[in-house]
Amino acid sequence: MGLKGRNIIVVGAGVGGLAAALALRARGAEVTVLEQAGEISEVGAGLQISPNGVAVLHALGLGDALARIAMPSRAVVLRDYRRSGEVLRLDLARHAPDQDFYLVHRVDLIDMLACAARAAGIPLRLLQRVDRVTPGATPALHLANAAQARADLVVGADGLHSRARVALNGADAPFFTGQVAWRATVPNRLQLPPEARIYMGPGRHLVCYPLRGGTLVNIVAVQERKDWAEEGWHHRDDPANLRAAFADFRGLPAELLEQVREVLLWGLFRHPVAERWQGAGVAILGDAAHPTLPFLAQGANLALEDAWVLADCLAGEEDQVSALGRYQARRRDRAVRVIAAANANAWKYHFRLSPLREIGHLALRLGGAMAPAQAVHQFDWIYGYDVTASGR
């Protein structure tokens, strides 16, 4: 059926927004992307793109481009914060050889998507801060410079503080989870292989994996604490604070943290999944619809899924109201389930009491030793889900 002649504005030039713009343009829509920043860029560093996200990028014609900028991930390895040896190895290369897992620098992924958008003739308008969205038959965007923009559809891919989400749901009340996270990159002087390592300690864990052909190491370190830290990725912190928080982590984590010269800190907040993902001429996706804690590395992957399904629903049904309703119906329950799994994953890394931690780690070791393939495939319901397949 297609979207030829449909005028769509996408707010936000992140992973989900750019992917949505590409998917909508491929179906014939006239798409414009508005971005409040002065350049198309991203803070943060590493992303893990799992097969469910890779499927969307392949469907957008970007599979080869992704392979050029990303590293295939061979394994996910869980380790204790003080003891040598592995607690559990999820050997992706051996037990999931037909599935593609990638490690990619966020900036490189955004650049790849932005270049594809420009090549498709999609205008990317910078310094366009949206103050308010007014739903309606012809929805309106009210910009900070007092200008207005109108379209047949506004897609809010504008993140945690989405104006489009507020227009559909009103303001919500996120709460601090009692966890903060630091993010940094360092040179890969230790020659880490292409796998994600998770070091688990009492009330803390540290994730690291290589990026950019193995030249960098991405570090994300999460700590439970009572002190509140402001939400957002833009808050710089003293690397000494990070090292102090993980001072008892031995071996590789200590060596990596010693190299950190710049670090960003953010508080982890839990937002409810939006009740309404669509309304009169407005739809939301990604973090605007379902902010996700980073304990299953699914934030970017869910945004890619959303982008594809939104375009698929709009192109498959002439009535926009019905199409948007179908989009929410196809996406919301899955997002709720993935987010619940991510929330439940955090405590597994943070056993505080020694007996519980040792028992928990022993259970992981035994499970991995007795049924290594089953350990890998426990999340097939996430990774094996292909929104681009016919019949979804």
In short:
This protein has a domain at 7-73 and 99-173 and 273-348: 3-Layer(bba) Sandwich (FAD/NAD(P)-binding domain). 36% of the residues lie in helices and 26% in strands. The chain has helices spanning 15-26, 51-59, 63-69, 92-95, 106-119, 163-169, 239-245, 252-259, 299-316, 320-349, 354-370, 372-377, 380-383; strands at 7-11, 30-34, 46-49, 71-72, 75-80, 86-91, 102-105, 124-125, 130-134, 140-143, 148-150, 153-156, 175-187, 196-201, 204-211, 216-224, 235-237, 263-270, 278-279, 282-284.
Overview features:
26% strand, alpha+beta, FAD/NAD(P)-binding domain, 8-stranded mixed beta sheet, 392 residues, 6-stranded mixed beta sheet, 20 strands
Topology:
Elements: E1 7-11, H1 15-26, E2 30-34, E3 46-49, H2 51-59, H3 63-69, E4 71-72, E5 75-80, E6 86-91, H4 92-95, E7 102-105, H5 106-119, E8 124-125, E9 130-134, E10 140-143, E11 148-150, E12 153-156, H6 163-169, E13 175-187, E14 196-201, E15 204-211, E16 216-224, E17 235-237, H7 239-245, H8 252-259, E18 263-270, E19 278-279, E20 282-284, H9 299-316, H10 320-349, H11 354-370, H12 372-377, H13 380-383
Parallel strand pairs: 1-2, 1-12, 2-8, 5-14, 12-20
Antiparallel strand pairs: 3-7, 4-7, 5-6, 9-10, 10-11, 13-16, 13-18, 14-15, 15-16, 17-18, 19-20
Helix pairs in contact: 1-5, 1-9, 2-9, 9-10
What does this structure look like?
The protein is of the alpha+beta class. The protein has a domain of 218 residues: FAD/NAD(P)-binding domain (3-Layer(bba) Sandwich), CATH 3.50.50. 36% of the residues lie in helices and 26% in strands. The chain contains 13 helices and 20 strands. The strands form 4 sheets. Strands 6-5-14-15-16-13-18-17 form an 8-stranded mixed sheet. Strand 9 and strand 10 form a beta hairpin. Helix 1 runs parallel beside helix 5 and helix 1 runs parallel beside helix 9. The model has no long low-confidence stretch (mean pLDDT 91).
